[in-house]
């Protein structure tokens, strides 16, 4: 069975060197290569298409445009970005358009490894810190200046608990352990949540949590 291929693209050699050290520790699982700019990446894609591209989003419009073009032209290639300074609306737009993963540059090596493994397994990974930041920034102040959460009445208290834990990055087993319920019960609640929010996966739940502000920001700090 052939290994998955990862392409790392960034103009900063020091940044690439750090990521390559992490990739080298996982070399039994996939092959990887690097390019130093996006022109090289586009040329490489004409001849060989990796399973995953790891790249820095940056804050410039051309970088954001390129990311969107890559997702449109190569929908089978998964993209994992570092997006410390990206506008929250841009991140939500990219996620809606098919982005598979997003990390902060301050991520620990283990988090990057987890993100890579999940994305290569057709699962999305988004840094809990990023999701929390988006939720907090989009909360609406009430008349006393406190962050107020709205539109949560259509979910039960248990469902809200599970949404909050999903937004914190907990998986099915961790949620089950924390709430003292079985993983199967978590699955049932999650299915009900997805039905109510009209989404198909965990990423959809998180996006709707952002859209409808159904997570109490005080619990995410």
Written overview of the protein:
- The chain is of the alpha/beta class and 221 residues long.
- It has 2 domains: 4-126, Response regulator (Rossmann fold, 3-Layer(aba) Sandwich), CATH 3.40.50.2300; 133-219, Arc Repressor Mutant, subunit A (Orthogonal Bundle), CATH 1.10.10.10.
- Helices cover 51% and strands 14% of the residues.
- It contains 10 helices and 8 strands.
- The chain has helices spanning 13-24, 38-47, 61-73, 88-96, 109-120, 128-138, 157-167, 172-179, 183-197, 202-212, and strands spanning 4-9, 30-35, 52-56, 78-82, 101-103, 125-126, 140-141, 147-148.
- The chain has a 6-stranded parallel beta sheet with strand order 2-1-3-4-5-6.
- Helix 1 (13-24) links the parallel strand 1 (4-9) and strand 2 (30-35).
- The protein starts with a strand and ends in a 9-residue tail after the last helix.
- The relative contact order is 0.10.
- Residues 147-152 have low confidence and may be disordered.
């Amino acid at each position: 069975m052939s290994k998955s291929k990862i392409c790392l693209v960034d103009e900063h050699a020091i940044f690439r060197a750090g990521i390559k050290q992490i990739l080298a520790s996982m070399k039994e699982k996939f092959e990887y290569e690097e390019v130093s700019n996006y022109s090289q990446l586009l040329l490489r894609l004409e001849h060989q298409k990796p399973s995953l591209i790891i790249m820095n989003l940056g804050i410039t419009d051309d970088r954001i445009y390129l990311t969107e073009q890559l997702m449109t032209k190569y929908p089978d290639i998964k993209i994992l970005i570092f997006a410390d300074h990206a506008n929250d609306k841009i991140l939500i737009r990219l996620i809606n358009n098919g982005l598979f993963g997003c990390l902060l540059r301050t991520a620990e090596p283990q988090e990057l490894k987890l993100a890579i493994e999940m994305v290569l397994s057709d699962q999305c990974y988004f840094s809990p810190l990023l999701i929390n930041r988006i939720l907090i920034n989009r909360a609406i102040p009430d008349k006393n200046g406190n962050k107020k959460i709205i539109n949560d009445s259509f979910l039960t208290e248990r469902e809200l608990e599970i949404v909050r834990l999903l937004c914190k990055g907990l998986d099915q087993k961790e949620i089950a352990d924390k709430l003292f319920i079985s993983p199967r019960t978590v699955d049932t609640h999650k299915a009900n949540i997805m039905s109510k929010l009209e989404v198909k996966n965990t990423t959809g739940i998180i996006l709707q949590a952002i859209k409808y502000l159904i997570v109490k920001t005080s619990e995410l700090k």
